[in-house]
Structures are given as structure tokens and as C-alpha cells.
Amino acid sequence: MTSNLPKHVTIDAFVLAGGQSSRMGEDKGLIPLNGKAMVSYIIQTLQKARLSVKLIANHAAYRNFSLPVYGDVVINKGPMGGLLTALENTSADLVLLVGCDMPLISVEAIAYLISSIDREHLIVSMINNKPNPLFSLYPSSLKTAVREHVMADQLKMTDFILNNKTTLCKTFPGHMSGCFQNINDKAALLALETNWEKAKLDILKF
Predict the structure, then answer these.
(1) Is 101 marked within a binding site?
(2) Amino acid 175: pLDDT
(3) Does the reported pTM lie above 0.90?
(4) How far apart, in Å, are the Cα atoms of 111 and each of 40, 106, 155, 162?
(5) 17 in a known ligand binding site
(6) Cα–Cα dist 140/131, whole Å
(7) 12 is in an annotated binding site
(8) Of 43, 82, 112, 181, which residue is most buried, by most CB within 10 angstroms?
(9) Is 16 annotated as a binding residue?
(10) Is 159 annotated as a binding residue?
(11) Which domain holds residue 95?
């Protein structure tokens, strides 16, 4: 799929695994979903899309995935700090930042996001008219601006995105919205496990 990228544009995909979830009571990406760590589904999909995959995580267990793992360059700064860590550890033109709690993300959604990229624009996915910072493309040229926001404790990613002059919004069609289901608590996890096959079929049929 990366063969569809504009010539000489490179992407590194970083999965933001974070740390312990207050609602889950444990590290969200490592929580079992149908016998596999939740983050493993996202890794597999990114690899199917032929992207270079790296992890931002502090738990030693993430090294079992045999991928590059980076701890936060500035601790306790949330997803904005994770973005800074990604930008500090890439030589690619763009970083695709992905949350660890969207196991239904699809190759088709990735292809749709990158279909109009260039080196200069921040491409933010819009799901149900809301920006999703954790499925968006960030140019490496934003590293200094991101670092300044992190060091000033200006950590709201939506504010950073919507106030950035290079931002382009990529609105996803309604039939893709299921790809972005967040598994934020045990009830959502149980519901997805119960309806796993149907959920996967609903994603794949489009």
C-alpha cells in the first residue's frame, strides 16, 4: 500500500501504547482481546499496510513484539508527549500516530488517510465531525513546535491541531466509523469480544 505514496515521501507509524489506564486498571495495549494483546491487532494492520512500525511505551513487555520501543522523552505529558517522542525518533517525512485502543483499524482506513499526503501538511482524521489526533499524520517539520507546546504544558492535542496553519482535515465516510471504536473500559472490551466476528465482518465488507 505504501507504493501509493507520493514519490520520496516516507512514513513511520508509531503506536502510542502509553501506560496504565485508570479505567482498565492495567496497561491498555497489553490487555488480552480474544487471546492476543490488543495492541497486536494494530501492529498487524500497520504491517499489512507495509508501514514501518515503532512503539512508544514504558512497559518492558512491549519489547516482546520485536519492534523498536521508545520511552517518553518527557514523562507525564500524555499523548502530546508521545507525539514529541515519535518526532524525536524518526527520520521519516511524516509520523502516523495511532492509539493502542483501536483494534478494528483497517488497511483501508490507513490508505484513505494517506491518499492525499505531502511533506508539509498535518493530516488529521475527522470521525463524525470530530478530529482524532491518534489517527493522524504529523510532518517531522513540526518537531520544534510540538516540543515548545510540551515544555509549556500546552498538552491539548486538538487545540494544537486546529490552531496549526498546516492542518488539513480528512473526513472519513460514515461506513468507516467502526474502525475507530475506542476500547476504553472493561464493558467496551467485553462487548467487542462478544461481537468480535460481526465487528470484523462489518469493517471488511466495505
Answers:
(1) yes
(2) 82
(3) yes
(4) 19, 9, 28, 23
(5) yes
(6) 20
(7) no
(8) 82
(9) yes
(10) no
(11) 2-204
